[in-house]
Amino acid sequence: MSELRRELGRKAFHMLALVYWAAFTLLGWPRAGWFMAAWLGVVVVVETVRLKVPSIERFLVGLFDGMMRETERRHYSGIIHTTAGSLAAMIIARGDAAIVGAAIGQLAFGDAAAALAGKAFGRTKILGGKKSLEGTLAGFAAGYAAAVACGVRPGAAFASALAASAVELLPTTEWFNDNLWIPISAAGVLALLR
Predict the structure, then answer these.
(1) What confidence score (pLDDT) does residue 148 get?
(2) Could you give the CA distance from residue 11 to residue 5 in angstroms, rounded to a whole number?
(3) Which of 29, 34, 42, 66 is deepest in the core (most CB within 10 A)?
(4) Where are the alpha helices (DSSP H) in 28-172?
């Protein structure tokens, strides 16, 4: 499977983060927070079982083949970070629908645009690393558009997209995952500029 095709599958799965925004919209605050906390508990249990029980691990890795990074096979996968980051964004936003939508939108659309544009068109590497200027600019533009579409003022949308893009530039490790920090950074900036 080509690297771009694998990334398309991973980023399509990232769009499921929009389900968290839909839950927030349908349930309202604070019920959405309680729902997300309970769901995070379920995700942690399933992921822990996956890491401890080889047959479950084989089943889930087979089910999501191509979407999991190699490092996620031995550690918690991105779903924990995405869920926790989305919940944290809701808490930081204190029920502000524009902030929640913008933060989750920057994760779903900004992160996806950065990765896909970087894989397809990325030529100019930033600081000699793996990330590209082209991918970063695409992620910034998509994050900005998501924030504005959610009703965020242009200046605040610019600042939050800049924060999310800065986080996306950092390398993913077993200790740092941008799926957690993109929505937190975006919501944090927007809460400060509220």
Answers:
(1) 99
(2) 10
(3) 29
(4) 31-52, 54-63, 78-93, 97-105, 111-121, 133-149, 154-169
CA–CA gap between residue 9 and residue 188 (Å, rounded) = 29
> Token digits for 15?
């769009």
CB burial readout 24-42, b (16+ within 10 A) else e: beeeebeebbebbeebbee
Q: Which residue has the tokens 């990330």?
A: 131
Is the pLDDT confidence value at 193 over 60?
A: yes
User: CB atoms < 10 A from the CB of 5, how many?
Assistant: 11
- b/e per residue, 123-152, with b = 16+ CB within 10 A? eeeeeeeebbebbbbbbbbbbbbbbbebeb
Distance CA 14, CA 172 (A): 15
Q: Is the peptide bond before 154 cis (omega within 30 degrees of 0)?
A: no
Give the mean model confidence (pLDDT) for residues 99-111: 97
Q: Residues 156-169: pLDDT tens digits?
A: 999 999 999 999 99
| SS3 assignment, position 53 | coil
- Residue 174 neighbours by CB distance under 10 Å: 10
- State yes or no: pLDDT of 93 exceeds 80: yes
The domain spans of the chain are 3-192
Task: Express as a percent the part of the chain with pLDDT over 70.
Answer: 94
